[in-house]
Amino acid sequence: MTRSYTANTPSLVGGRPFTRRPLSGIRQKLSRPTTVTSFGVTSACQTRPASRQTRFGLSCQAKWALLNKQVVASVQRRETAERLEHDMSTWMRERQSLGRRLARVKRRLAREEVRLTSAEESGKESSQMERLRTRVQQSHEQV
Fold first, then answer.
1. Lowest CB count within 10 Å: 6, 17, 133, 142, which one?
2. Residue 65 belongs to domain spanning
3. Could you give the 3-state DSSP secondary structure of residue 87?
């Protein structure tokens, strides 16, 4: 004999009659009855007014914007510091190489002073040394 389905007849689960457990979480919120108001259909689970929900959303957006702004500012400060460090190391290397070149020119000038007889050649060497001195002074000013 076949049993026909009726809404009031409990079905058997594991040899026991199935009883409905209470719902929890999102299912409970979704299963609450809805009411019809002059503003439209609303669920009974709505406890906050709409204005409060938007204020919460705006405050989250404001907090996120502030956090994003702080992170961007921090990254920019670090990048600026890295660029300054790179520029400083470049200027230091340039200053060292100019110092070495100046020392070489001084040694060469000292050796050539003994051999030079004409005043024209010594003037050319001294102008080269003056140019190097001005470049060294400029690199000191940059650092």
1. 6
2. 56-137
3. helix
Q: What is the pTM of this model?
A: 0.40
Q: What angle do CA 19, 24, 28 make, to 5 degrees?
A: 95
Tell me the CA distances in angstroms from 2 to 5, 50, 95, one per residue in order.
10, 53, 102
Q: How far is 77 from 85, CA to CA, in rounded Å?
A: 12
- pLDDT digit string, tens, across residues 3-61: 554 555 555 555 565 566 665 655 555 555 555 555 555 554 555 555 555 555 678 88
Token pair in block for residue 13: 């689960």
Q: How many residues are listed for the chain in this entry?
A: 143
What is d(CA 72, CA 95) in angstroms, rounded to the nearest whole number?
34
CA distance 3 to 56: 55
In a domain, 4, yes or no: no
Q: Determine, yes or no, domain membership for 118.
A: yes
